[in-house]
Amino acid sequence: MERTRVIIADDESLIRMDLREMLTNQGYLVVGEVGDGRSAVNLARELPDMDGIEAAKIMTEERIAPVLLLSAYSQQELVQRARQAGVAGYLVKPFRESDLPPAIEVALARFSEFRAMEREVDTLQDALETRKAVDRAKGILMDTQ
Questions:
Q1: DSSP states along 95-131
Q2: How far apart are CA 113 and CA 106, in angstroms?
Q3: CA–CA dist 132, 120 (Å, integer)
Q4: How many CA atoms lie less than 13 Å away from 67 in the CB half-sphere?
Q5: 26 membership: H or E segment, kind and range
Q6: d(CA 32, CA 54)
Q7: Which is it for the CA torsion 97, 98, 103, 106, positive or negative?
Q8: CA angle 42, 45, 46 (to 5 degrees)
Q9: Range list of β-strands (E), the chain
């Protein structure tokens, strides 16, 4: 079974080290650790300077990966920004190692469900466009016959 790949982004190196150890112990494959949101997204592609929530928004919009935000802050404004950015999970520091696997697995599941719904919408839109084209063709045939 392929291990789930994880990028750690936190401005505190000790937190990154602890997270790497916790996630590795839980069976996740940590493919990178960075100190800011821009660097996290740069692991996927080049982008300008941004904070963690802005990085999360881009990764969500571009369907790169689900984002689980770990923050020392729980202010409603930040939670609202994270929600609007499409963050799949939000944990407030300090957290326990046992908090990580459920949060990661739920974030992965929501991301997978979202991708499946997008595919279904695309299929339905294609079917609707096909139906419209067939109806137009029927109309033209009826007018000429």
A1: --GGGHHHHHHHHHHHHHHHHHHHHHHHHHHHHHHHH
A2: 10
A3: 18
A4: 27
A5: none
A6: 19
A7: positive
A8: 70
A9: 5-9, 29-34, 68-71, 89-92
